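Dear V.,

Thank you for sending over the compound details. I've combined the ligand you provided, zinc ion, with the protein sequence from our construct and run the structure prediction for the complex. I'm sharing the raw inputs here so there's no ambiguity about protonation or stereochemistry in the SMILES, which I know was a concern on your side last time.
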Amino acid sequence: MKGYVNIPKSVYCKPCRECGARPIIAHAGIEGYVVKCPNNDEHYRTVPGIIDVEDWNIHNSQLYDNDYDLKMMGGR
Ligand SMILES: [Zn+2]
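Below is the predicted structure of the protein with zinc ion bound, written out as structure tokens.
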């Protein structure tokens, strides 16, 4: 039984660094939830617990990408 939840479009999240897919939220049993790539479990996934899109974003940032994105988010 797999429970996947699409992240709402209103939530800012980066595409998978490996394949460019938009991440999904997966239920990880009693441990909570993970944010993960829908295509490959070996791509980055967050530690099970709270839904941590921010952690996903950090780990899927391209080098030098962070400052740019922070400015983008601040401008909204
Ligand atoms: Zn991926």
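A first observation: The first helix runs from residue 53 to 59.

Warm regards,
I. M.
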